[in-house]
Structure formats: structure tokens, C-alpha cells
Amino acid sequence: MSPAVLAVILVLILVTALYVAAEFAAVSVRQSRIRQRAEEGDWLARRLLPHIDHPHRLDHYIATSQVGITVSSLVLGAYGQARLAPLLVPVFEGFQGMQVAASESAAAGVVLVALTAGHMILGELVPKSLALQFPTQVALYTLLPMQWSMRSLSWFIRVLNGSGLALLRVLGAKQQGQVHMHSPDEIEYLIAESREGGLLQADEHARLRRALRLGAMTVDEVMAPRTEILGIDSRSDLAEMLRIASESPYTRLPVYRETLDHIVGYVHVQDLAHSALMGSAMPALRSVLFIPHSLTLDRVLERLRAERQHMALVSDEFGGTAGLVTVSDILQQILGRVADEFKSADPQPERLPDGRLRLPGAVRLEEAAQLLDTEWAGSSATLAGFLMERIERLPRSGEEFVIDGVAVEVESMAGRTVVSVLAAPAQAGEVGHG
User: How many Cβ atoms from other residues are within 10 Å of residue 256's Cβ?
Assistant: First the structure.
């Protein structure tokens, strides 16, 4: 085999590798990264961004890659068969008893297998791996050849795309361009891979996972329940309001008429202080935002931002007040608990010397299940709600029962609220009831 023939074959394989790398890089590169580099002055990124930022242009870009792969593969096969097979025919003719036709077929088969193996390894597997590992660099480095190819093959690609679109219409399917979209589950998987690869710290990984869950969590999972709302009767005078505000860790206090089911607004401690200093009358009430208890947290944030509010009252299905939620409550789902200099620290799970756990009634059910190594699940968001859901009544202080193999004791109650629970991890062989 002459060096010229070998050089042509290698060039055809490299051309295929170029198109394969360009295709995989285009569909895996992050738009945000290319946009950032474009804003930093990278001229290749500025030229690449329009191709990956628009679904139809990306579809055209990928179609060019696929046409290039197909054409280069066909040319490689035809050229290789024409140049290499005749060189092997004499070798097979030397075998005793092999006919000329059989020798030609054998030579063609060997050439086909050899070209296919080399083409797959050097022309497809290696460039694909490089494009997936370094999508940004590969997408930028293959841009200029791709632009030249798009200009030269534009008429052919339009014919192919038009034919494909016509066929889709006949089949009743809709054409959809290539887009860079990932479902929340896929994004969570990517985040987990980044954590395993050392690109994210443990706390960063946890925050991103919690942020993704905002669209699945409802406001009644994070709100302060009605029993914990500190409100002010609308009939109170300024002195009474100042007293309540001074004893409260909150800056915004709902004002109600007769009961918490009739919230008429809220007062900010800043307004109260200003009225007291200026010797003026009662401050004007600020309007309060009401939201349904089934609203997801991402929608709650949108509503709060649109209304320029920091808190919202949560309404139950009967129009009464179910609870109260603030921006801080939602942010804590992403950032974790943040200390507040005016609030006492929330009680945390505590392991006792006898092996049991002291759990606050307000602890999230999934956290309690994880600590107790059980698979508790229910419609309630908190441990207290889950206990009442399972025993179908309000528990009593000191009451003991077993739920799914977990021994539970209600340690203390405050009115109708479960304050703390003592629980032991599930024991092997115990039969649960409740």
C-alpha cells in the first residue's frame, strides 16, 4: 500500500472524526458557558452561540454533521475497497483451491472489516469521548470547519430537512428542533455526578438538590402553623402593639379582627417605632398576601417577588388561616437553617444515653425517618402530623405506641401541639401497628 493511499484513508477518517466530535459537542456543551465566554470577548464563542441558542439552527448544525459523517464514511468505504482489495486478491489466490471470485470476495471482506474497525475507533469512539469530556473546547475548535460545511451543504440539507418534514407531516408527527433541556431528575443526576467527580463540595451539592425540590414542595410543608402565629388584635392601641412587638422576635406582625381567620393586614415594627417617636396615631396597616396551602414553593417565591412582599398568609380549603410563610422559610429549604439573633434556636434531634432519639414534633417526616432508619411516609410533612395521621386522633403526653417497628413515646404536648417525641430505631422482628 502506497503512502498516498494511506494518507487519503487517514484524512477521510479524520474528517469523520471532525463531524462526530462537532455533533456530540454541540448537543452537550453548556449554553451558559459559551455565553460567558462570548461576553468575555471570545470571538469563536460569539460565532458559536447563535448555532446552539436557537433550536432550528442547532438542528441545522447537527444535520450538517450527520451529512458529513455519512458522506465521508461512504467515500472511505468506496475508496478503501477500490484501493486495498486488489492488493489482497493475489494473497488469497495463493491459497490452494481458491477461485478468483472467492479471492476477491475474501479480500473485500477483510478490507471492509479493517476499515470498519479503524473507522469506529478513530472516527467515532475517540472523538465522541473527547467531545463529551471537553464539550466547550471541542465545540469551539470544530466551529470553523462546520461553518464552511454548512455553507457548502446548505442546499442539500434544506432538501433533506424538507423531505423529512414532509414525511413527518404525512405520519402526523410534529417537527421539534434540537434543544438543550434537562428534566429535574436529569439535572439532579448531573449534580450528583459533579459531586462524585469532585467539582462540587458536599454543602454545595445539598443546596442544589434542595433548590431543585422547590417545585415539588408545597407551602404547607414549610409554613409556620396557625398555632405558632403571633398576631395583634385590631382593637389594640399603640402602647399594646409596642409591647407585643418588643416581646416578639418578628418584624412583621399580622393584625386580625376577632380571630386569626380574619386577618386585615400586618404592621411592621419600623412603622410602630416611627409612630411612637413622632407621637402620631396608629400606623397604617400594610396589605397582606394570601396564598392557597397547595401552592408550590417556587410559585410562592414568584408571588412574593411580584407583590414585593416578605411574608404571606396561607389559607386553608375553607378560607380560614392555616399558617404563615416568609421568604426566610423558603430560603432555609435551600441554604439550611440560618441563625437569627432575635429568635431562640429551634430544637434539634438529640440522641439520649439509652439509645433513643428525642425528636421535635415539628421535625420533617423524611428527616425523622432517616434518623430512625425506617420507611415512614404519609401525607403529613412533619413528625407530629404523621403521628396523628397514623393513630387517627390527638395523642396524649406520655402515651406510647409502636409504628412500623418503631417504639414511640409522646414526651410533651403544648395544647394540641406535639412538642417532642422519644423514639427508638426499628428493632428486627418487631411487628408494627398504630
Answer: 20
Q: β-strand 406-414 against 417-424: which pairing, if any? A: antiparallel
Q: What is the pLDDT of residues 325-354, one digit of tens each?
A: 888 877 777 666 555 545 555 677 888 888
CA 127 – CA 138 distance, rounded (Å): 9
Rounded to whole angstroms, the Cα distance separating 30 from 35 reads: 9
Residue 196 Rama label (left phi>0; alpha psi -120 to 50; beta): alpha
Q: Can you give the pLDDT at residue 182?
A: 54
Report the Cα 47 to chain-centroid distance in Å. 29
Amino acid at 225: P
pLDDT in tens, 284-312: 888 888 988 888 888 888 888 888 888 88
Q: Which amino acid is at 408?
A: V
Q: Report d(CA 314, CA 293) in Å as an integer.
A: 6
Q: Which of 265, 269, 275, 271 is nearest to 248 (CA)?
A: 269
Q: To 10 degrees, the CA torsion angle through 243, 248, 249, 252?
A: -80
For the question of whether the overall pTM of this predicted structure is more than 0.85, the answer is: no
Cα–Cα dist 185/200, whole Å: 18
Three cell numbers written together for 87: 492488493
Contact 230, 265 (CB under 8 A): no
C-alpha–C-alpha distance, residues 128 and 134, integer Å: 10
Secondary structure letter of residue 284 according to DSSP: P
406 HSE (CA, 13 A, CB side): 24
